[in-house]
Amino acid sequence: MRDNQSRPDLFEELARVGKALGNGKRLELIDLLAQGARGVVELAREAGLTVTTTSAHLQTLKHAGLVTGNRDGTTIRYRIASGGVAALYSQLLEVAATQLADVDIAARRYLGPEDTEAIDRTELLRRVRAGEAIVVDVRPAMEFTAGHIPGALSIPLDELRSRLDELPSELEVVAYCRGIYCTFSHDAVRLLTATGRRAVRLADGILEWQVAGNPVTTDEATH
């Protein structure tokens, strides 16, 4: 027999996930961990938090089943608990952008002027298959190693200016980074076009690429 009195308990358990995600800094940690495993010190540095505060946020996420931690020597490295968590985070970004005008306003302030051309995943694949473009991953090298678009070249944004000669001048460059709210690809396209190169950016990033079911490789040969 169904116990209707247990219905509130069920929804309270479900709410643990919502509560864990209901903090901007915890979302920022999820965003970073979607790019690959990281230790607490590294996460704290990138998120602009103290190690103590970062550890507390990670424990909240862990208790909600959103991240896991594994010991690597003296360091505990955290990662997204599953592909479902990445998909949930991606969907949260999409729903928030659709339902809240303030998200678009904040995104415009963060990403800067709309002065770079963007293409979608289908068009990226078409241009690559047609031999018209080369794909460049402008995230930090460790994120590239954790997983990237097959065939992409790794040139972190802070190395791009000094490595321009590695890019065939006859090909258009398609730059991509972490996700829809990542600034690296915007800055990469600005730099490339300023030097006379043809360049566009992927409209989203590796997060959305994976969630859509596209292949990802950890092959380091394309550094």
UniProtKB/TrEMBL annotation:
Which keywords belong to this entry?
Answer: Transferase
PANTHER family attached to this UniProt entry? FAD-DEPENDENT OXIDOREDUCTASE, OXIDOREDUCTASE
Q: Which organism is it from?
A: Actinokineospora terrae
What InterPro entries has UniProt attached to this entry? ArsR-like_HTH (IPR011991), GlpE_sulfurtransferase (IPR050229), HTH_ArsR_DNA-bd_dom (IPR001845), Rhodanese-like_dom (IPR001763), Rhodanese-like_dom_sf (IPR036873), Thiosulphate_STrfase_CS (IPR001307), WH-like_DNA-bd_sf (IPR036388), WH_DNA-bd_sf (IPR036390)
Iron-sulfur listed as a keyword? no
Give one Pfam hit by family name: HTH_5
SUPFAM superfamilies on file:
Rhodanese/Cell cycle control phosphatase, Winged helix' DNA-binding domain
User: What is the name listed in the Swiss-Prot or TrEMBL entry for this protein?
Assistant: Rhodanese-related sulfurtransferase
Top-level taxon of origin: Bacteria
Domain HTH arsR-type as annotated: residue spans: 6-100
Among NCBIfam families, the record links this protein to: HTH_metalloreg
Q: Where is the Rhodanese domain?
A: 129-218
Which molecular-function annotations from GO does this UniProt entry contain? DNA-binding transcription factor activity; thiosulfate-cyanide sulfurtransferase activity
| Protein's UniProt keywords contain Metal-binding | no
